[in-house]
Amino acid sequence: MNSTDALGEALKDVYFNSAGEDIIVISDIAEDDIIPTDYLFRNYKQMPKLERKALDLCFGDVIDVGAASGSHSLYLQEKGIKVKAIDISIGAIDVMKARNIENAELIDFFELKEEKFDTILLLMNGIGIAGTIEKLPEFLNQCKSLLNPKGQVLLDSSDIAYMFEEEDGSKWVDVNKNYHGEVVYQMQYKNTITEKFNWLFLDFNTLKNEAKKLGLKTEKVIAGSHFDFLARLTLE
């Protein structure tokens, strides 16, 4: 679990204190970026089309992985869908429980065992929790182990190859990485900062090819406006 819960501190500040500064996102491939904290409390109409489409496709017993403030889970719960929301942020769980999400649990996705779901929901580049291309098979196998026979995995990601393009059309390559979508992040909120963690951005073809090796069929449900996509994985 994170001992430096920047995300959780931000969520609590917004929800309990009606205040909140931007979350600063530090990476090894770009200048610092920000996440406006109120964005993490968006409602269905404020969500990007990929997220809305994913929520529309959810059925059966759903697990919302990396649920943060629980906005996706809250929407599904209000629609009468049974949903379990998980996160590794203690603050996130506190906020979800305060928002009356019925089943919010502090647990790492990779620690889940002996449970089955009809829909595994991984939004906001949820596949990022795989961390690296090397660990992608472990992530996909964990999805398989938690999936009911006719279930589905809904996830979005982005191909960030465009970030490595030069003005002349050539691309520079980081020889220290196995795949261009591997990023090292830290998150900072006020004086709270996380340790460095690995995060994976994946192009669709790589996802499809790696999933096929493990007996998963991959469908591109919808493409976003900037190299992003929503994918649906099912058991072959």
Automatic annotation (TrEMBL):
GO molecular function terms attached to this record: methyltransferase activity
Pfam families: Methyltransf_31 (PF13847)
BP GO terms, sorted: methylation
The keyword Disulfide bond is annotated on this UniProt entry: no
Domain Methyltransferase: start-end pairs: 62-195
This protein's UniProt keywords: Methyltransferase, Transferase
Protein name: Class I SAM-dependent methyltransferase
